[in-house]
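seq:
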Amino acid sequence: MKHTEVTLSKHPKVRTIIDPKTVICICGKRVRLDRNYDPDLLNRHVKNKICTSDNGNFQITQFFLTQSSETSRKRKLCIGLNDEKVKLYLHRVGFVITFGGAPPSEIVARELFGNKIKSSFHWKDLNKKENDQLLDTL
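struct:
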C-alpha cells in the first residue's frame, strides 16, 4: 500500500500533518512516524493508553479550523481615515507642536468665517461677537 499525504489526512485520528514524519493526533499529542506518511506508529499510539481520543473527551481545538485563512492576513485600510472630517482634524492637530498647543488662529478663523476673511487674517476685522467665538474655539 502506498503511503501518501492524502491517505494519511483521511485517517480518523489525524488532526493535522506537520511534516511527512510528524502528525498531531486528535488527542493533542504529537506522534513521530517511522516512515513518510506511514500510519503504523499512529495506530500504535491510538491503541496505547496514552491516547485519550477513545475515552470520549475531546479537546476544544479540534472543532476549529487548523489552517488560517488568507483573508485574515491581508491588511485592510480603515475607511474612517478617508473621511473629510478626519483630514480636517489631523490638519488642525498637526499644528499643535509648532504653535504651542492650539491651531493657528488664521486657520480657525477661515473655517469659522470663510466669507469674511479674504487673503490675510487680522483680529481687527472681527467684531466683538466673532472675536469671542474665535477665542472660545481656540
